[in-house]
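Why does this matter for the project? Reviewers at the last site visit asked to see concrete outputs rather than summary tables. In response, this paragraph embeds two records directly. Each consists of the residue sequence and, immediately after it, the corresponding structure tokens. Nothing has been edited or filtered.
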Amino acid sequence: MSGPTLLEFPCDFPLKIMGANDAGFAQTIAAVVVKHAPDFDTASMEMRPSKAGNYLSLTCTVRAVSQQQLDSLYRELTAHPMVKVVL
């Protein structure tokens, strides 16, 4: 996925992560994000349940320092069994 990018680093980059509204989902995802973006403030994570409450949407805005960092974070999130979609 490496190549030219339209992003200028460092930059604030929002990620929207959706998964089942299970106990521990937000904490698990926060731990994955912090692993790739150690300065991520977990208190800044926005959480929105779906209308029926079955799913939870998390918005995590990270301070991205490279395309490689974003690619690694995206790969780990999309491979996680609790995650349905990453935007």
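We now turn to the second protein, recorded in exactly the same manner.
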Amino acid sequence: MKQDSKSKKILFRKRNYRILFIAFLMITTGFVIMTGGGSDNPYLFNEEIFNFKRIRLAPTIVLVGFGTAMYSILTQKR
């Protein structure tokens, strides 16, 4: 057997995994910010679901997190 076939190749470097971990934290943070704003009484409407954090900020954080994850996957080894 060849010695090359026995050696394992690492797919990503440590830097890639760090960036990917940061991306997952950003995505999780965005989804956590989106939650909440409900009402205890189902007959009352709560205007909190339409605030800036849930409508603009949280989806932006999630999209930036997905972009960061794609960046970490597509960057090459150095």
